[in-house]
Design goal:
The structure holds 2 protein chains of 2 kinds. By secondary structure, chain A is an all-alpha fold. Chain A has one domain (about 10-125, about 140-280): Orthogonal Bundle (ABC transporter involved in vitamin B12 uptake, BtuC). Chain A has 13 helices and 2 strands; from the N terminus they run H-H-H-H-H-E-E-H-H-H-H-H-H-H-H. In chain A, strands 1-2 form a two-stranded antiparallel ribbon. In chain A, strand 1 (about 130-135) and strand 2 form a beta hairpin. Chain A is globular, with a radius of gyration of 19 Å. Chain B has a domain at about 70-305. Helix content of chain B is about 75%, strand content about 0%. Chain B has 13 helices and no strands. Chain B has helices at about 1-45, 50-60, 65-90, 95-115, 120-150, 150-175, 220-240, 240-250, 255-260, 265-290, 300-310, 315-340, 345-375. In chain B, helix 1 (about 1-45) packs antiparallel against helix 13 (about 345-375), helix 2 packs across helix 3 and helix 3 (about 65-90) packs across helix 12 (about 315-340). The longest helix of chain B is centred in the first third of the chain and has 43 residues, at about 1-45. Chain B is globular and about 70 Å long. Classes of the chains: A mainly alpha, B mainly alpha. At the A-B interface, helix 4, helix 5, helix 10, helix 12 and helix 13 of A face helix 5, helix 6, helix 11 and helix 13 of B.
Chain lengths: ~300, ~375
């Protein structure tokens, strides 16, 4: 009974939204680039680099909002590399994005030492202001994430621009015939996902926390991908799925069950990701041409 | 008739040699460009690339002792390179080398200290335990991919985090003695033979030049030899057996392979299990040969370095040995670089750059083929 009470406690459920915030942001980004036909395994690295950039921005200016701007630039720059190498040069998207993740891990620890003289964590910086709802602390990034969900849905499904993105992912050669520049749309969507992943990083380092810690993304970029798949490549679905994963993350940190070692409970978000992914796929259909570079036919 | 046959044979062989040369050129160009861009990052930190790379070279190849250390460092990287390459040949991306290495190291370290066995079988049994544990950790994403179509990249990453929590956070904290973040040291019989002890052996020890292995502090161990043996076995498996043919068919064209009666699911599971076993051996070797216990931080990103190793080695066993030696050298030399005040993470940045450039440059081959096809059609 005590366990059930713990699992249903209001503060735990309210905290889920906070834990879900980076997942929502990154999953929205993932939805854009996957709808356009590009797999972005590099969300993790873009989130990590965004987290570092946010701390750097806040450290240099003392203004956390500059940090937020930096995080968007940071995530966007890594996305630019992915876009150039895998969209323009048509190299393997998964391979390049894995390179992005390794690069982000290396460059953040490298820059930590160059700027702050520590290989583990940055000094504390000014964090974003916070507000309370029913006693639970939130930061503005959570609001940003919630506002972006319907906007992303509207853009993808109700505007000509969104229609073009989806057509580029489903049937690029048909879109091309209609005069849509396939690779331009894919390029832009990859950049959008990088910017959103960067914002997710800002949530981790200067929203929820006050400093950058090495490897602080902790697989959230990949969990966000799972949320996007579970949400059927729809921003509203991704939002719901991210909330579920956020809940498991909250449970992993907050709940203790007698007889089960804490380390086992902490595997919960990862185990649930595997279970949900293995259970959901089959029913979920990705965009038809996902992962395939687009080569224009020549006469 | 015979002339004609030998003619086609020759041009086929010629085409193969040209392909190998292009592959080699792409790999060499990638590493050179990556080091040049790496130099920019060193400059940005206000340090001198000449001093940095000088230290890197000294640390990796400065003498017999350094070269032995480079061999030692390359051992797990060659294995994790195989762990990526075998599934990659079937079109799968196994980035779970890190987790597979951890469970392999844990299993080997556990068997090494927990059980009492005669020396002659203890090390092989512990090594086998590590290999099987890694294979099991590769089997999970394999079967989920085959049965449910779950994306192997996300599953393997999740399993990396689970492996860390289970083997290090739980396993070590539960089983350690004293403050050292490690399992208890393994029994002497479970330790892998160190090549530095070669001169003490009765017959081999009298060979000329054998003294070269006996460098002070050298930890080069048997697993390096096993890595080379594994390369031969994998090469034979891929190029000379039906299994290898099936693996390559699924990788190149799954639809055609299916039409030809090849079970894609069996191939997916088989390659992931082999990949996991290879990463498991990397971990077992580190636990039994290098540290003589399963110790926190032992993985040291080897699973991810294996990705760069496999890509640079073009997923060929021989290429992977060369690429493994290169990254082993970078890792060993990176420590020397740290001594002169340049963060050794520059090595990790160079790894990532290598991945970008290999991926981008191999498209040259595609564009060249396209231009040739276009030229012929005109």
């Amino acid at each position: 009974m005590n366990i059930v009470r713990q699992l249903l406690a209001l503060p735990l459920i309210l905290a889920s939204l906070r834990f879900a915030t980076p997942l929502i942001l990154a999953a929205l980004g993932g939805t854009f680039n996957e709808r356009s036909g590009v797999i972005n395994i590099g969300l993790e690295g873009m989130m990590l680099f965004g987290a570092f950039a946010a701390v750097y921005g806040s450290f240099m200016t003392g203004n956390p909002w500059v940090g937020v701007l930096y995080s968007m630039i940071g995530g966007g720059v890594l996305a630019l590399i992915l876009a150039i190498v895998s969209v323009s040069l048509k190299a393997d998207q998964i391979v390049v994005a894995t390179g992005i993740n390794i690069f982000a891990n290396g460059i953040t620890i490298y820059l930590l030492q160059v700027f702050f003289g520590s290989a583990g964590r940055s000094p504390r910086v000014t964090r974003l202001p916070y507000f309370r709802v029913l006693g639970t602390r939130y930061n503005p990034m959570t609001l940003v994430a919630i506002i972006l969900v319907p906007i992303a849905w509207y853009v993808l499904f109700k505007t000509p621009w969104g229609l073009r993105i989806r057509s580029v992912g489903e049937h690029p050669s048909a879109a091309d015939t209609l005069g849509i520049n396939v690779n331009k749309y894919r390029f832009v969507c990859v950049i959008i996902s990088g910017i959103l992943a960067g914002l997710a990083g800002a949530h981790l380092s200067i929203g929820d926390g006050t400093s950058f810690i090495r490897d602080m993304a902790q697989g959230r970029g990949f969990i966000a991908l799972a949320a996007m798949i579970f949400g059927k490549w729809n921003p509203l679905g991704a939002f719901g799925a991210a909330l579920i994963f956020g809940y498991f993350e909250a449970v992993a940190i907050r709940v203790s069950i007698p007889g089960i070692p804490a380390e086992f409970i902490r595997t919960l978000p990862y185990v649930m990701t595997i279970i949900i992914l293995a259970g959901a796929v089959g029913k979920a259909t990705p965009p038809a041409k996902i992962g395939e570079p687009y080569f224009q036919e020549e006469e | 008739m015979s002339e004609l046959q030998s003619g086609t044979g020759e041009s086929l062989a010629e085409g193969k040699i040209v392909n190998i040369l292009i592959d080699l050129g792409v790999s060499l160009a990638s590493i050179v460009i990556a080091l040049l861009v790496g130099a920019v990052f060193i400059l940005l930190a206000g340090e001198s690339p000449v001093i940095a790379y000088g230290a890197l070279y000294e640390g990796a190849l400065g003498g017999a002792r350094q070269i032995m250390s480079t061999f030692w460092r390359s051992t797990p990287l060659i294995f994790t390179g195989f762990a990526l390459a075998i599934p990659f040949r079937a079109g799968l991306f196994n980035i779970g080398g890190e987790g597979q290495l951890l469970v392999g190291g844990f299993a080997a370290g556990f068997v090494g200290y927990y059980f009492q066995m005669p020396g002659i079988i203890h090390a092989p049994v512990a090594l086998l335990a590590g290999m099987l544990a890694g294979a099991f950790w590769g089997f999970i994403p394999g079967i989920l991919k085959a049965w449910k179509g779950a994306h192997e990249v996300i599953i393997t990453i999740m399993l990396n985090y689970i492996a860390t929590l289970l083997t290090i956070s739980y396993g070590i904290n539960r089983l350690r003695v004293g403050g050292r973040p490690a399992l208890p040291s393994i029994a002497e019989g479970a330790e892998l033979f160190r090549l530095g002890d070669l001169p003490e052996l009765p017959i081999l020890g009298s060979l000329p030049f054998i003294e070269v292995f006996a460098q002070p502090g050298s930890r080069l161990h048997l697993n390096f030899i096993l890595a080379i043996v594994a390369a031969f076995i994998l090469w034979y498996l891929l190029e000379r057996t039906t299994y290898g043919y099936e693996i390559r068919s699924v990788g190149i064209n799954p639809a055609a392979a299916h039409y030809g009666g090849i079970s894609e699911n069996k191939t997916i599971i088989l390659t992931m299990v082999i990949g996991g076993a290879m990463a498991g051996l990397a971990g077992a070797g580190e636990a039994l040969g290098t540290h003589h216990s399963f110790i926190q931080g032992m993985d040291a990103g080897h699973g991810f370095t294996g990705i760069a190793v496999a890509l640079l080695g073009r997923n060929h066993p021989a290429g992977i040995i060369l690429a493994g030696l290169l990254f082993g050298g970078l890792a060993e030399g990176g420590l020397e670089m740290q001594f002169v005040g340049i963060p050794s993470e520059i090595v990790q940045i160079v790894q990532a750059l290598v991945i970008f450039f290999v991926a981008a440059l191999q498209m040259i081959k595609y564009f060249m083929a396209r231009r040739r096809a276009k030229g012929e059609s005109e």
